[in-house]
Amino acid sequence: MALSRRAFLVSVAGTALAGAAVCGGALAEDAVDVALVLLADGSGSIDPEEFRLQREGYAEALASNEVLSAIASNPHGRIGVVFVEWGAPESQEIIVPWSVIDGPDTARAFGERLRAEPKKTFGYNSISNAVDVAVKLLADAPFAAGREVIDVSGDGPNIGGRDIHAARDEAVARGITINALAIRSPGSSVAVSLGIPLEDYYRQNVIGGPGAFVETAEGRARFAQAIRTKLVLEIAALDAGPRILRRADRG
Would the pTM of this model clear 0.85, i.e. be above it? Predict the structure, then answer.
């Protein structure tokens, strides 16, 4: 069942510090280089196998040598991460609360919890409402962060909820960068009605802020490589440029 607004706010306050303790023992005053909200598509278009691949892709990517090296390359050598899945306008669920990742052990602990949690979301594609939830999570994060990033992954456009441009622009005005991962699978090239590929839709309507970019996964089998590349760019603050489209390695 989706959280009510009151229950959601209580959940954020109550679970954020607990999650940090589980996956890094962080205190509220501890600084991280990046506070990262992972917003993953948990909508009705995600079948059970795609759901498993998506969860597994994030868990593997966060524990990969490339991502751990990117984390270590920053001044504090630690990032804060929360994993949220989204569906309908009223369906956003915190799957793994705020946690500090500062090495292999905390990365594996985050991944184990991510793999273990059941799917809780329902309905279709309110990216805008998910972005609003991410902004609130960043405002309430239990640590100071050098940068704030919202990482949206999905296989379709925004459908319900409030205007996507308003949600994006308000987040960017707070100094937050929004990046996106377009998951290209049969039937997901958006908007046959709009006549543009999914990655172009995300570039025009979802991403924003300094260095914002879109990564593309050609099918869910390439998801792990795509998210790994994307996380390295985000965590190491490499300049992907605001309108560069990158694709996962086909090999």
Answer: no
